[in-house]
Structures are given as C-alpha cells and as structure tokens.
Write a structure and sequence with these properties.
- There is one protein chain.
- It is built from 22 helices and 23 strands.
- It has 614 residues and is an alpha+beta fold.
- α21 links the parallel β19 and β20.
- α14 crosses α16, α14 crosses α18 and α16 packs across α21.
- The radius of gyration is 26 Å and the shape is globular.
- The chain starts with a strand and ends with a strand.
Amino acid sequence: MVSISTGLQGGGLRVVMASLLFAIPVSTLQAQSPNAFGIPTEKVSNPAANVVAAPGSRGQGWLGQGRSEVIARHGMVATSDPIAAQAGLEILRNGGNAIDAAVAAAAVLDVTSQNDTGIAGDLFALVWSAQDKKLYALNSAGWAPSGWTPEYFKETLGVDSIPGRGVNAATVPGAISGYDALLKRFGSMGFEETFARAVQVADEGWGQAERRHQDLSSVQEKLRSDADSSAVFLNDGEIPPLYSIIRNPQLADALRLIQEQGRDAFYEGPIADAIVAKMQADGGVMTHADLAEFESEWVEPITTNYHGYDVFQLPPPGQGFAALEMLNILEVCAPEHGVNLSALGPSNADYWHFLVEAKKLAYSDLQAYNGDPLFSDIPIDRLLSKSYAATLCNRIDMDVATEPSIKGGLDGGTIYLTTADRWGNMVSFIHSIFSVYGSGATVPPYGMMLHNRGVAFSLDEDHPNAVAPRKRPFHSIIAGFVMQDDEPLMTFGNMGGSVQPETHVQHMVNVIDNGMNIQMTTDAARFTHSQNSNVLSLEDNLYSLVGRALQAKGHDVRSVNGGRVGGYQGILFTKDSSLPMPVFGQESIDQDHPVNGVYRAGSDHRKDGQAVGW
C-alpha cells in the first residue's frame, strides 16, 4: 500500500491518493542481472565486459572528452593508479616537493602494479629544478651482468636470442639507485617518508582493478612456471578474483629494509643476497659485484624545437630521439608536401598518413643506431638536425604507404607519472619492468618481480645493441618535457613499449598544432604502427573515420581498442607574471604559498589512474 499526498497547508487544495495496491510478484523485485553493481561471480569474472551501452558525452567543450582537466596551484600528481596519485599528493601536502612526491607515488606503483613496474625495474626522469632554473636528466637503466657475452648465451645457454623469461632476461635493476639519486640531489625527504605509504599498502592490501586483473590473467602460465612468482601473485595457482584484496607483505619487508638501510640494502645488503641467490638457483650469472658497483647516471637532455616549443627527451639508450626526429620530419617536410596538419585536422586521412610515414622514417633510424652511448657511437646531433630531416622528405609519398626501410622493435609495459609543486619544480618520470610481470621470476623472500630488459639486447656482435658485460640495453621507456623561452611548460609521457615515441609526437601535434587541452589530447583517438609487420592499428572510432581512406593508400589497417596505444599523463604550467616568484624554504610551507601560476593536468581513461591536485 502506497500513500501519496500533495497540496497546500492551511485550507489550500489538498489531494490524497491512498490505498493503491500493487500485486507485484516477488521475483520481479529481484535484480535482473546476476551481477548487480558489477559484482563478479564464478561464471562471470568481469561483468562490465558484457554490458552493451552507448557512452555519454560532456555538456561543454569537446563532447568526446572523458573528464575535465584537473586545475590546482599548490601541487599536482598524475599517475596510472589513484592510490599512487594520492600518495604523491600526501607528500606535497606534508611539505614535500615534486621529487619526493614522484618517488612516493612510484613506490606505491611498485606495490600495486608489478604487472608494469617494480623495485627490480629501471627508471628515467627529467627534473625541472625551479631554484636552479635548469632541466636535469637521470638515466637509471641497469647494466648487463659481467658474465653476459654472446658466447654465454649461444654456447652456455644454447640459445640464439636473449630469453624473455627467467633470470637470464634480467639486467641489474636500476630503480632503487634512481630513487636514491633523485632524493639526494633534489629531495627534501628520504626513503623513510617517501616509502611509508607503499609499505602500508603492501601490508594492508589493495583492491584488484580491471586492467591489472586482465594482465594477471594473460600471464597465468608464466607465473605458474616460477614457484616464487606463483606463491606471491596467484592463489593456489589461480588468478585472484576481480576486486579482491591483494597483499604482498614480503615486498613490504623489502621496502622497510630500504627505509632503514637506504640503497645499500638493495645493492650490497640482504636484498642483494636474495637476488644473487635467485640467480644462482635458476642458472643466472649476476654477481654481488654487478649489483654493488652499479650507479645511476646524470646525463644531458636532448631536444628539438617544434613550431616554437622546445621538446626534450632523454638520450640513448632510451628511444626518445625517435620522437624528436619524427617532429623534425613533420615540421620540415610538411611544406615540401603541401601539408598543414592544423588545417587538415585529425579527421582527415592525409593527416594520419603523413604522421605514419614520418614515424616509419624515424623508427628506421632508431633501429639502426640506438644503443648504449658508452659502447656505441650514436650520431645524435646529425639525426636531430633540421637539415637531416630535410633529406628524408622525398621518401614520403602522400598517395602511397611505404615499407619501413629497417624493421625491429619490442612491445612492453611501464608506468609513467608526473608531479609538480608549489615552488615550480616539475618531474617527468618513467619506470618499468618491461613485459607484463617482467621476467616472470620473483625474488624470495621479498616478493619482487625481476624485470626482463635484457631481451632487448642482440647477439649479433656487429649490432649497436649487441650484448656485452656492464652494457645497458636498448630502452623503450622515455619521459617528455616541453619548454618555451627557457621556462618550463609541460611534462608528459605515454606508457606502452614501442608505441612511446609515436604517441609522444601525437600528443605534441595535438596540443601545439590542434590546440587540444591537457586532458583532450589523451581522450582523442591514437594510432600505433608496427615497424616489424608494417601493420597500422587505429583505435575503433578512428578506424571508422579514416580506416578505408588509409587502406586506399596501401596501409594494412586494423581496428583495435585502447589497450594497444598505451596510457598518458601530463601537467601544464601557466605562469602568472603578476605574481611573486616562489620563496624556496620553510616559509612557503609554513605560510602555505601556492605556485606563481596554475597547473593543469590530464590522465588517460585507458588506464586506472587520475590526476590530483590541491
């Protein structure tokens, strides 16, 4: 029985409707879906994947934009995991700087995201020091064990390429050395403060999100093949259910050791002992000396100017120079072919054809030259010159797709994060164990997955990336930075193995040529092109828009979902010249000063993360 009453008090109209009886069967009151609220069952492990619905749209701006930019003045963090973003923001709110926040956020990702990264991985970073008014670059890519030679792999192991799994895929992990280098040079906190939230998350547990659940499902057999990995990441050999609580108390123990003993715990202490023991048990040759003698390297960033903006990358062995070369080709060759990317726009097939053909040229040079600059002579100055780009213009045919002149490339995963603080410091930071769950080999009793960066080495002794003792392999992970008039403007990066240079360029074209904002650039559809197979993959909506026109030019086109194009984060700083410059020191913290401008940030909807600020 339902009683409905409407009317006015004090003599006004009053209508009463009562005693309405509804004979409703009990069964119709039950949820129609067996997975109400998206709760998984034994039969349906991911209910959302079975829902067919039309996406909604915004009420302003570009209707396809998934969310607004985050705007803040005291600090900003953007990562691929909300828990990690909040950990970085917590550091900023407690008086830490952007460098402290980057390490704190990355440490949480080391716990929650061992599908992509971990303390037994590598990292690179670009750091804008507001006090120094200078951009710094850190290479913390680990080197090969001293026993790694072509003969070791060919004769001792009997293989014709570096394995992708197991301990013989792992070079020395550089991440903890990188954290230490960043904190000692620019940080205001140490491991005790920056690792605190990561330790808590590892101990108490976190919820299993969709993307990580999918990644875990894709490598179940890989993890089962290593008893230590199976014990840490699986439940009796099975995948933990979606939304279940995941814990890693062994990893918490490793993080506490680093809090107490610093980097030495990892490279000379008990964690080093555990790594060597795992290597020896599984037939590897990494030694205590390989770990103890490794140091991160501060290097000079490389750069090119694109339409008035200085775009920066890290030098080799990372693949960042391919992004800069590709930008040069776009800028120099566009007039030669009567192309104006801004006028064409991303709904025109010629726009995409031009980008893809430029990509093939830049990646051919990447495959031909990239390696460890301490071992190989890499002609970076020539490759990044505008005059060199001009020599490549006649290799682009605006009517016909070409075959890459040099093939190659490996796919992998990573995390990218970026931070900014009240003083104007900005960090562009990338960190990875390469393949999904890296080498598949976990180090007991510390619950950490070894990366498999060694797979990028070649056994061809004439190749610039030929394996050698204490040499660093070709690295896919890159971090981007934009400046104008010697002032910091934007941090950006895009996770996803070989897609990174081509996606960096797409973001630069989006924001510079197309005028997209910091969120819109990632919500727009992207392409990825395989340098090996010459297959051009377009996200579904983009394929529907220009796929047939590109096929008509000879491209081998595929329609793919967003999982193929990686994930982006970015922060833009807009300086307000009417505001005073930041005060460096405790006064800014005590008086809660904001930065002399505004930060705007975006985060990719294709991943699980967010941008947060205050």
